[in-house]
């Protein structure tokens, strides 16, 4: 009696990949994935910096006695020359080395007693009027000015206005502002440059508001 024929499995020839090649492909895929993640993170950081750059404020403060159009106006203004909005959180005004908190104190520190009495009388009679922005914090859009106070010269108040025009160069300012990303800068003096700070700290007794 013949035994049944047993079929033996034959190994395939040429149907599989060498072990080293499989490892090489796997390593290539891993490196590609890691590189993609790195590129995505790097791109995200670049975009974040780009957004911050496009939101950077640059505030300049100044005192002047004439508008760009040539109108005689004594004014204290903040101007945001940056591209992003600025949140002004602190403003101090000085006459020489003396801090003043109101326009009344500003006038008292700037004028001799006889002239101060005349100016205050003119204010009381509304011959000399002062327009002011009394808010504690000011939000200044990019490329826009922000009024602090303004005194326009008129035929009726010319005498008193000229008294102030003779002393306004004694006035100086200090201020602090932040971007929408809570990056903050302190500026000391009209000609000062913004210096980065951790945060804006208000000095309430010395903070300036125009109201008298």
What features would you describe in this structure?
There is one protein chain. The chain is of the alpha+beta class. Helices cover 30% and strands 26% of the residues. It has four helices and ten strands. The strands form two sheets. Strands 3, 4, 6, 8, 9 and 10 form a six-stranded antiparallel sheet that branches. A four-stranded antiparallel sheet has the order 1-2-7-5. The mean pLDDT is 87.
Structural class by SSE content: alpha+beta
Give the uncertain stretches in residue-range form: none
Overall number of strands: 10
**Mean pLDDT across residues:** 87
Major sheet size, sense and barrel closure: 6 strands, antiparallel
Element string (H = helix, E = strand): HEEEEHHEEEHEEE
Report helical residue fraction.
Answer: 25-40%
Shape: rod-shaped
Approximate strand percentage: 25-35%
Using only CA atoms, what is the Rg? 35 Å
Topology (SSEs and partners):
Blueprint: H1 19-53, E1 59-64, E2 73-80, E3 86-95, E4 98-100, H2 103-110, H3 113-124, E5 131-132, E6 138-140, E7 145-152, H4 158-165, E8 171-178, E9 184-188, E10 195-197
Antiparallel strand pairs: 1-2, 2-7, 3-4, 3-6, 3-8, 5-7, 8-9, 9-10
Helix pairs in contact: 2-3
What's this, in brief?
By secondary structure, the protein is an alpha+beta fold.
Features:
10 strands, 4 helices, 6-stranded antiparallel beta sheet, 4-stranded antiparallel beta sheet, rod-shaped, 212 residues, single chain, alpha+beta
């Amino acid at each position: 009696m013949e035994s049944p024929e047993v079929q033996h499995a034959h190994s395939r020839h040429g149907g599989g990949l060498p072990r080293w090649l499989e490892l090489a492909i796997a390593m290539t895929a891993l490196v590609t994935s890691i590189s993609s993640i790195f590129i995505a993170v790097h791109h995200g950081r670049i975009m974040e910096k780009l957004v911050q750059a496009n939101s950077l404020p640059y505030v300049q403060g100044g005192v002047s006695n004439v508008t760009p159009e040539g109108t005689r106006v004594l004014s204290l203004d903040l101007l945001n020359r940056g591209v992003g909005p600025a949140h002004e959180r602190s403003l101090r005004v000085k006459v020489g080395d003396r801090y003043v908190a109101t326009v009344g104190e500003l006038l008292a520190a700037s004028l001799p007693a006889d002239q101060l009495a005349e100016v205050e009388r003119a204010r009381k009679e509304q011959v000399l009027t002062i327009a002011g922005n009394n808010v504690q914090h000011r939000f200044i859009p990019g490329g826009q000015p922000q009024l602090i106070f303004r005194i326009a010269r008129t035929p009726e108040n010319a005498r008193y206005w000229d008294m102030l025009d003779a002393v306004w160069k004694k006035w100086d300012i200090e201020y602090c502002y932040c971007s929408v990303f809570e990056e903050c800068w302190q500026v000391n003096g009209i000609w000062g440059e913004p210096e980065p700070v951790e945060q804006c700290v208000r000095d309430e007794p010395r903070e300036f508001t125009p109201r008298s």
